[in-house]
Amino acid sequence: MSAPRIPAVRRQELGAAYADEGRAYHAVRPGYPAEAFDWLLAPLDGTRLRAAVDIGAGTGKSTAGLLARFPAESVTAVDPSAEMLAVLRDELPGVRVAPGRAEALPIPGGSVDVALLAQAWHWVEPRDCGRELLRVLRPGGVAAILINQLDVRLGSVLRLSRIIHAGDVYDETFRPALPDGFGPVAFAEFGFTQELDRDGVFALARSRSYWRRAGPRGRARLEENLRWFLDEHLRLDPAGSLRLPYRCFALRAVRQSS
User: Fold this and answer.
1) 155: which residues sit within 8 A by CB, 6+ positions away?
2) Is 6 helix (H, G, I), strand (E, B) or coil?
3) Residue 189 CA to chain centroid, in angstroms?
4) Which of 63, 118, 179, 200 could cross-link to 196 by cystine, CB 3.0-4.6 Å?
């Protein structure tokens, strides 16, 4: 499967599940490799890093990667969740914050050099978002997508992903359908690991959209399966930690001149 297929109504329901508990989300979700940002911004050669927008910025995990390369006042973080943006304000003071949706960005036309969606493409309506990317980017600017997912090529990680409903929803063939006006979509992959203790693994499971929409019975079953996985399958020391391998997919396309 190259990309998730989520009906529009279901996409809105699942996305709304992230509208609260921003602190819990921020504590356990991984960031993104610095090498991925270097690759995404390579077409700009460091000469036109004037302004960027992080679309679906959430609590700022991806925004932090932009701040290593842009002045804080030139980065705008956009997200529909007020609670997520409140966490971002606390974590990354100085960043411009704007409530909004990817399909109707509160950003002037032709005003940014980078428009980033990290862990957000499957929550947006692709056609409307693509038009907005074309509108807000300057000629030569970069539309960028980052996707973190567990490396389910490893058997134990695949089993964990099934337990917490974090399946392998993208593969190397995925390319976003962008409108005319963009050059070819380039792809790169970067690997990294995240270390979590036992409580952190449970918190990661509770940060998934499935948990947030599940009822008491579904949540109890997930936690029972997760305890089995950690205690009996992995025999994880109660005071130990788990190193989770991730794949980070990076995709970029350059906006062509009008």
Assistant:
1) none
2) coil
3) 14
4) 200
